[in-house]
Write a structure and sequence with these properties.
heterodimer, A: six-stranded mixed sheet, 10 helices, 10 strands, 38% helix, B: Rossmann fold, eight-stranded mixed sheet, four-stranded antiparallel sheet, 13 helices, globular
Chain lengths: 274, 346
C-alpha cells in the first residue's frame, strides 16, 4: 500500500531582497507501508528541506504531497493533526532535539498527554514499554538529556516518536554524530523497529554504507533533484549517474580500503629498525 | 642517533577535583616519525583528545597533572619552560579540531585570525600571507574568503581556514582531532586529500584522531587503538585492521557498516559503554564488554605482547580456554593466514 506519494515537489525559499533559492526542484517518489527509502546526498542538496516539507514544517511551493491518497495541503485540520502524529521525525543532534529542562520521563509523558495516546492511568506503563522497545533501562527515566550519552538520547528520540504509534519515521542523519559502536546499535534498532512494527522509514544520510545496510530503495539527491533512484543494491552496486559514483568513491569503506591497500606495493616507511 | 619526531612514553593525565582523583589517560606510549601518518582510534571517552592536548600541555594544567614523557625532537614538552613550549606549539605541533565553527572566533575576519599566527610581518604583508595560505588550502576565492567572517563560510571552508592557520607556522606535526566528523563524505574526502597533499608538500607528519576506521584503512600507515585511557593495540594499518588481535579492535571493525555487505546484515555492536575514568575496571578495562573475557581478564591486567612493529594488550586466548576464531568481515576478505602468536612465558 502506498503510504506517501510525492509528485514534482518544489521548495523555494524567499529571502528579502535576494533572489529566491530553489532548494528542492521537482522531486517525485513514493514510500510504501513498511518500506525503507534512503535519501543520500551532500549538505546543501536539499535533503533536509525535502524532509521538512514531507513532515509539514515547510509548505511546498509547487507539487503534490499525498498521504494515503489525501493531498496534504487540502487536509482538514483534524486530518492534518493526525498526519502530524503518524509521520514522525528523528533529528541528527539527539541531545539538542530533547528539552534540556525535562527528564526522560517528562519528555515521553508529554507526547502521550498532548496526543491523548493512552488514558492517564496507563501513561507510566506505556513509558516503560517504550523504553523497553528502544532497549533502555528504567534507570534513565529520571535523567536529564545531558546526564545520558548521545546514543541513549537518540534512543529516547526514537521512543518519543514511537509513543505516537507512527506509520512513517523520517530519520535525518540519525547516526552521523555517534560513535561506530553506538551507530551500529541505533541502526540495528531502526531495522528491528521497522520489521516488528511494520514502519516505513525515510533515512536521510550521506553515508552510503549506512543506507545500504538498512534501506530497500535509495534515491540520490543532487542540487535539489533526484539524479538516480532504485533498489538499494542496484544503485549502489551499479551506479549509473556520475554523482552517485563520486559519492560512492568518497565513502571511507574499511573493506575496500584494505583491498586496495593489499593491491598496491607496500609503502617503504623509514623506521629506526629498518 | 636517530630521534623520532615525537616519542610519547607512559603519558598519563590525572585530574584532581574535590579530593577525587581520576586518570582519563592512564598509559599512552606512541611514536611518530617525520612525515609519518599515524592514527589513534577509539570510541568517545577513551582519552584520545585529551592525549592530543597533553602533547603540548594544552590540557588544563591547573587541574590536570601530566606524567610520563612527551619527547618532541628529543625535548620533553612536559618539562619545557613556557618560552620553549611556545615554540613547539604552532611551529612544532599544530592542531586542527573537530568543530571548525567552534574553533574560529566568530567576530573576527578570517584573515585577521590567520594573521595572528604570523606575528613578525607588517599588516599588509600579513594579509597577503593569509591569502596565500588560504590559496594553498584550495579555497576557490581566497581573497574574498580572507575578508569573510566564519559564519559566511561553509563547514568545509571553515575547516580549510583552520588548516591554513595550522600551517601558518610550518609545523612538523599536524594533530588532526576528528577533523572531518562534522562534514559530509564528499567534503570529508576533499579535506583529507588536502591534508595529505599539504603533509607531502611540507614533509609534515599527521597524527589523526578519529573513530572512523575507513579513514584509517584508506589513508594512514600506522594505527594505535585506544581504550579506557590506554593503547590496547598498535601496528601497521594493513596488519591491525586485517588481522586484529584485540577483541576491542575486532568489535570496532564489526560495528562498521560495509558497502558490499548484503542488506540487513545486523551490525555487531560492542555491548555497554566506555567506563567512566573514575571507575576504570580492574584487570583488563575492556573485559566487562568483551565476549571472550575469561575470569582472569577481570582481575589481572593483560600483558603487553610485542612482536616487530606490532603490540597488543590482551590475555592470550589459549590461556583463557577459548579457541573460537573471531575474525572480522574485513579480515575474511583477506586470504593471508594470520601470523603466528609470539611465544609467551607461562
Amino acid at each position: 500500500m502506498t503510504l506517501l506519494n510525492v509528485q514534482d515537489l518544489h521548495v523555494t525559499y524567499h529571502a528579502h531582497g535576494q533572489k529566491p533559492v530553489e532548494a528542492v526542484r521537482g522531486v517525485s517518489f513514493s514510500v510504501d507501508a513498511g518500506e525503507s527509502l534512503g535519501i543520500v546526498g551532500e549538505s546543501g542538496c536539499g535533503k533536509s528541506s525535502l524532509a521538512k516539507t514531507v513532515i509539514g514544517l515547510q509548505p511546498p511551493s509547487a507539487g503534490s504531497l499525498r498521504f494515503k491518497g489525501q493531498e496534504l495541503s487540502r487536509m482538514a485540520p483534524a486530518a492534518f493533526r493526525d498526519y502530524r502524529r503518524v509521520v514522525q521525525m528523528v533529528f541528527q543532534d539527539a541531545v539538542g532535539s530533547l528539552n534540556p529542562r525535562m527528564t526522560v520521563r517528562q519528555t515521553l509523558e508529554e507526547v502521550l498527554h498532548v496526543h491523548r495516546m493512552v488514558p492517564a492511568n496507563r501513561v507510566a506503563a506505556r513509558v516503560r514499554e517504550l523504553l523497553d522497545r528502544v532497549g533502555l533501562p528504567e534507570t534513565v527515566l529520571d535523567a536529564y538529556p545531558r546526564e545520558i550519552s548521545g546514543g541513549q538520547c537518540q534512543r529516547i528520540s526514537f521512543a518519543r516518536c514511537l509513543a505516537l504509534e507512527p506509520q512513517l519515521i523520517i530519520a535525518d542523519e540519525p547516526v552521523s554524530a555517534l560513535d561506530v559502536s553506538v551507530q551500529a546499535r541505533i541502526l540495528n534498532l531502526v531495522r528491528t523497529l521497522q520489521k516488528e512494527l511494520h514502519l516505513a522509514v525515510i533515512l536521510i544520510s550521506h553515508d552510503l554504507a549506512v543506507v545500504r545496510n538498512i534501506c530497500d530503495r535509495v534515491a540520490v539527491m543532487y542540487a535539489g533533484q533526484f539524479v538516480e533512484s532504485g533498489p538499494a543494491a542496484d544503485v549502489l552496486d551499479a551506479p549509473k549517474h556520475a554523482y552517485t559514483r563520486e559519492l560512492l568513491a568518497a565513502v571511507p569503506d574499511v573493506g575496500r580500503a584494505l583491498r586496495e591497500r593489499a593491491q598496491r606495493p607496500t609503502s617503504q616507511l623509514l623506521t629506526p629498525s629498518s | 642517533m636517530y630521534v623520532p619526531l615525537l616519542q610519547v612514553r607512559d603519558l598519563a593525565v590525572t585530574f584532581r577535583q574535590e579530593g577525587m582523583e581520576t586518570t582519563p589517560v592512564r598509559s599512552v606510549s606512541l611514536t611518530v616519525h617525520a612525515g609519518d601518518r599515524v592514527a589513534v582510534v577509539g570510541e568517545s571517552g577513551c582519552g584520545k583528545s585529551l592525549t592530543a592536548l597533553a602533547l603540548t600541555r594544552l590540557a588544563p594544567t591547573d587541574r590536570a597533572r601530566l606524567s610520563g614523557e612527551v619527547l618532541f625532537e628529543g625535548a620533553d614538552t612536559l618539562t619545557l619552560d613556557n618560552r620553549a613550549l611556545a615554540r613547539v606549539r604552532g611551529h612544532g605541533i599544530a592542531y586542527v579540531f573537530q568543530d571548525p565553527s567552534a574553533s574560529l572566533n566568530p567576530v573576527m575576519r578570517v584573515c585577521d585570525q590567520i594573521a595572528e599566527s604570523l606575528p613578525n610581518l607588517s599588516r599588509a604583508d600579513r594579509l597577503a600571507a593569509a591569502i596565500d595560505l588560504l590559496r594553498k588550502t584550495g579555497l576557490p576565492d581566497p581573497a574574498r574568503a580572507a575578508r569573510a567572517f566564519p559564519c559566511e563560510l561553509s563547514g568545509g571552508q571553515q575547516q580549510r581556514v583552520m588548516l591554513a592557520m595550522a600551517l601558518a607556522a610550518r609545523p612538523k606535526l599536524l594533530v588532526a582531532d576528528e577533523p572531518t566528523t562534522a562534514l559530509d563524505v564528499t567534503t570529508q574526502r576533499q579535506v583529507l586529500d588536502l591534508i595529505d597533499t599539504l603533509a607531502d608538500a611540507h614533509d609534515m607528519a599527521v597524527l589523526l584522531i578519529t573513530h572512523n576506521l575507513g579513514l584509517v584503512a584508506g589513508r594512514m600507515e600506522r594505527v594505535y587503538v585506544m581504550y579506557a585511557g590506554e593503547i590496547v593495540e598498535s601496528g601497521a594499518v594493513a596488519d591491525v585492521l586485517a588481522h586484529p588481535r584485540h577483541p576491542y579492535t575486532r568489535g570496532l571493525l564489526a560495528a562498521v557498516p560495509l558497502l558490499d555487505a548484503p542488506r540487513d546484515t545486523p551490525l555487531q555492536d560492542i555491548p555497554g559503554t566506555v567506563p567512566s575514568p573514575d571507575a576504570w575496571p580492574a584487570g583488563c578495562a575492556f573485559a566487562p564488554r568483551c565476549a571472550e573475557a575469561a575470569p582472569r581478564c577481570h582481575t589481572d591486567p593483560p600483558p603487553e605482547t610485542l612482536s616487530d612493529e606490532r603490540m597488543f594488550r590482551c590475555w592470550p586466548k589459549q590461556q583463557t580456554g577459548q579457541e573460537s576464531e573471531t575474525r572480522t568481515r574485513a579480515a575474511r576478505e583477506d586470504a593471508r593466514p594470520p601470523s603466528t602468536f609470539p611465544d609467551r612465558e607461562p
